[in-house]
Amino acid sequence: MTALLLEHGPQTASELAGRLGVSPAAVRRHLDALAARGRVEERSTAGTQRGRGRPARRFHLTDAGRSGFAHAYDDLALTALRYVAASGGPDAVRAVAEAQLAGLERRASDAVTRAAGAPVDRAQALAEALTAEGYAASASAIASGGQLCQHHCPVAHVAAEFPQLCEVETAVIGRLVGTHVQRLATIAHGDGVCTTHIPGPRRPGTTPTTGVGDHTRAGNNDRPARPVPGERAARVPRTAPSTSTTPTNDRERTPA
């Protein structure tokens, strides 16, 4: 039925019934169900009348109704960003991503500002704001702080080719929760969920760990740590001092 509205435009229940070969009552029940889901809406049409002095009421597709049909938004976005990348390079793509996410940051900041407390607490408010934006987000506390999970990414196909979108989004999350965060997984790169680690307050007397299996490394320096000076010396085998009194320097030997 929505396909008929898309193809032929707004129609009355009687017109739809005629096209489908069913009763107007059956069409009306189906239209009521579609209207309850926000897929169609009924409007009075000026200039046409049904009966004496009564304007005809036709059913129109809503934006939600149209969204059920195929779209090429991803292809359009990829084409546009490829042109931007070819013209201005990676920095131009990043500028587009920052402009796109600026609105999201403004809308989410209102909810996060009202949430007092640690970054983990602000992450909970951010998760609710992101869910309203279509990200299906959740936040939870873990031993090393907290994590923000986004179970849906509206731009996953585009971000798979242009990681600047994920990088800018991560920076936005960090600014909103008020601390440096670390992206652990993204849907755009094949993971099931976009996961962002939010470090908790450091306990007095503790230092960040970089052990195997710990995904919250200290900083972004992947270079191996320099050995302690004493250890460097310990690895070089030492030769026992010679007790011989015979000179060993060739320059001290006299020809026979």
How would you explain this protein's 3D organization?
The chain is α+β, with helices and mostly antiparallel strands. Helices cover 44% and strands 15% of the residues. It contains ten helices and six strands. The chain has helices at residues 2-8, 13-20, 24-36, 63-67, 73-88, 90-113, 119-132, 156-161, 164-177, 229-234; strands at residues 40-49, 55-61, 137-142, 145-150, 182-185, 194-199. The protein has a four-stranded antiparallel beta sheet with strand order 3-4-6-5. The protein has a two-stranded antiparallel sheet with strand order 1-2. Helix 2 (13-20) crosses helix 3, helix 5 (73-88) crosses helix 6 and helix 6 (90-113) runs parallel beside helix 9 (164-177). The longest helix is centred in the middle third of the chain and has 24 residues, at 90-113. 20% of the residues are buried.
Write the layout of secondary structure elements.
Elements: H1 2-8, H2 13-20, H3 24-36, E1 40-49, E2 55-61, H4 63-67, H5 73-88, H6 90-113, H7 119-132, E3 137-142, E4 145-150, H8 156-161, H9 164-177, E5 182-185, E6 194-199, H10 229-234
Antiparallel strand pairs: 1-2, 3-4, 4-6, 5-6
Helix pairs in contact: 2-3, 5-6, 6-7, 6-9
Shape: elongated
Strand order of the largest sheet: 3-4-6-5
From the N-terminal CA to the C-terminal CA, the straight-line distance is: 116 Å
Structural class: alpha+beta
Gyration radius, rounded: 33 Å
Average pLDDT score:
78
**Proportion of residues in β-strands:** 15-25%
Low-confidence stretches: 208-256
Tally the beta strands: 6
Question: How would a textbook summarize the main sheet?
Answer: 4 strands, antiparallel
N to C succession of SSEs:
HHHEEHHHHEEHHEEH
Report the helical percentage.
40-55%
* Count of alpha/pi helices: 10
